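Researcher: We're teaching a course module on how sequence relates to structure. For the next exercise, students receive a sequence and then see the predicted structure as tokens, so they can try to spot secondary structure elements on their own. Here is the exercise chain.
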Amino acid sequence: MTTHPAVNADPGVQIGYPAARVADQELTLGEGARLRSGTILYAGSRIGERFETGHNVVVREQCEIADDVSVWSNTVIDYGCRIGAGVKIHTNCYVAQYTEIGPGAFLAPGVTIANDLYPGSSESAEVMSGPSIGAGAQLGVNVTVLPFVRIGENCLVGAGSVVTRDLPAGTVAFGNPARVRGLVGELEDISSRIQPDDASASRYRFSPAEPADDKTALGNGVTMEVMG
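Model: And here is the predicted structure for the students to work with:
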């Protein structure tokens, strides 16, 4: 059974795909959803209002998704996840089973979340659990987050990082493994570091004064001093 009032869905969308794992086959989908072609919503989840997807998005069963969540093309949200209001998940992301994402968090393209510490181990499978990502946290392009990790509220994680341990709220972290490098509140104002480039489709570039050494790029184009 599927409950979905007003839905704007392209041809090729499947709402309430049967879920073999659960007895409860009801899918609740709030008003104002916009579902693009190739989207598959499994039965057995509860999804809030104004849910929006790109193309070829899969949301598995037993997920709880709050209002105003966006999930973009070729992303999979596996079963048993909880996603807060206003979360934005970009393209080509994988959100593993039993992951929690707090309100207002953002996952850039290619973010991968893991939930099995020892793949192939039956004991590890019994305690399978994704990470908890705090409200307002921002994860850069191609970040990988390992099982059991807690990422604090409003953290900023740089592109390509592998998060293996907890990150305190409000911190900037990057690297493999990701290490805390500073505080979000101390980031240099971006306007002081760039200049327009009217001749390019890439509208801005780093200013000539931008130091080329001792700094490491974050996923949003900001850099910070690497702290020892």
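Model: If you want an answer key for the exercise: Helices lie at 122-126. The CA atoms of residues 122 and 189 lie 49 Å apart.
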